[in-house]
Design goal:
By secondary structure, the protein is an alpha/beta fold. It is built from three helices and five strands.
C-alpha cells in the first residue's frame, strides 16, 4: 500500500524580518547624525561674512550669547576664569585654536574683553565663527 504524498511546498525566503532590521539600523544612523550635528554649540545668531573658511582642527569653543553670558565648550564661565580654563584645555588636548561664537547682538566691548583674555595665551590661534 502506498502512502499518499504530501504536495511539496516551494521554499520561500521571508524578507520581512530583514527589512525590519534594515529600518532599525537606518533609524539609528539618522538619530546619531542628528545628535552629532547639534553638539557643536549653543544657539546664537552669527554675523554674516563673505570670506569664511571652515576650520578642520580640534578646537575650544567660546560662546557669547545675546545677553553677554560666556560659555566655554557649552559650560557657563566667568570672564575672570576664562583664560585659566582655556589654558588648561589647551595643555590637556594639545589644541591651539579657539573659536569664538559671538551673537551679533552682543556688546562689542564684551567680545573684545573675551578676545583680549584669549590673546594672553601663548601659541593660541583665534577664529571668529560666522555664517555664510
Amino acid at each position: 500500500m502506498r502512502l499518499p504524498e504530501e504536495p511539496e511546498v516551494p521554499f520561500q525566503i521571508n524578507i520581512i524580518p530583514m527589512i525590519d532590521v534594515v529600518f532599525a539600523i537606518l533609524t539609528f544612523f539618522i538619530a546619531a547624525t542628528l545628535v552629532l550635528n547639534r553638539t557643536e554649540g549653543l544657539p546664537v545668531s552669527l554675523p554674516q561674512a563673505s570670506t569664511t573658511k571652515t576650520q578642520t582642527q580640534n578646537k575650544v569653543v567660546v560662546t557669547l550669547d545675546a545677553q553677554g553670558n560666556i560659555f566655554l565648550n557649552r559650560q557657563p564661565i566667568a570672564l575672570e576664569q576664562l583664560e585659566a580654563q582655556v589654558r588648561s584645555l589647551m595643555s590637556k588636548e594639545k589644541q591651539n585654536i579657539v573659536v569664538i561664537n559671538a551673537d551679533e547682538n552682543v556688546a562689542h566691548g564684551k567680545a573684545i574683553a573675551v578676545m583680549d583674555r584669549i590673546r594672553n595665551i601663548e601659541g593660541v590661534k583665534m577664529a571668529i565663527a560666522t555664517k555664510k
